[in-house]
Specification:
Elements: H1 2-26, H2 29-33, H3 40-58, H4 62-86, H5 91-117, H6 122-131, H7 140-161, H8 165-169
Helix pairs in contact: 1-3, 1-4, 3-5, 3-7, 4-5, 5-6, 6-7
Length: 185
């Protein structure tokens, strides 16, 4: 019986370690130098993007990874809750804000998943320009600005696709370095 509790603690600890790596990657200056707004919303969007990439890698192994994926999600939204409180958001409002952030997260991961699976190359740049850069997604200029970020996302998805799920579940992840040349919003 006790081993079940220790396993949950280990899973949560490993999810925390993985989440820390996601945060470090999401905060790389190259993203913000390339036009991602260096704001609370911009940082949230980059965390969502990297969480999406990791959870997308975990999904094909759902039977083995569902507990870990849930722990990773829980760690993310516990962090969001804590961050809102640190920013001075009152206790009565935090729950509503966290629910809204969760809705936004699910909306973004659905948009990114559809876009990555879309045969149209521009679909991902459109989704990123709307959700992260705050630019209209159907304009050629917005798509051009988002293209380096879209290339990074494709590269990161491929890099994660080559990583063993077991490694992720131990709390280790490798992302490519963002090479965001040519992008400015």
């Amino acid at each position: 019986m006790l081993s079940r509790f220790f396993k949950k603690d280990r899973t949560r600890d490993r999810a925390r370690e993985l989440y820390r790596d996601i945060i470090v990657q999401a905060r790389k200056p190259a993203f913000y130098e390339a036009g991602v707004p260096d704001t609370v919303d911009g940082r949230f969007d980059m965390i969502c993007l990297h969480m999406f990439l990791v959870m997308r890698r975990l999904k094909p192994e759902e039977g083995r990874t569902s507990e870990f994926s849930q722990a990773l999600f829980d760690v993310m939204f516990k962090n969001m809750d804590d961050s809102l409180r640190e920013m001075g958001v009152g206790d009565l409002i935090v729950g509503k804000r966290v629910r809204k952030l969760a809705e936004d997260f699910y909306g973004r991961i659905n948009a990114y998943d559809r876009a990555l699976n879309d045969e149209e190359e521009s679909a991902l740049a459109d989704a990123l320009s709307r959700n992260i850069l705050g630019l209209p997604g159907d304009e050629a200029e917005a798509r051009e600005v988002a293209q380096p970020l879209a290339a990074y996302v494709r590269q990161a998805a491929a890099t994660l696709g080559n990583q063993k799920v077991e490694r992720l579940m131990l709390g280790f992840v490798s992302f490519p370095e963002p090479a965001m040349t040519g992008a400015t919003a």
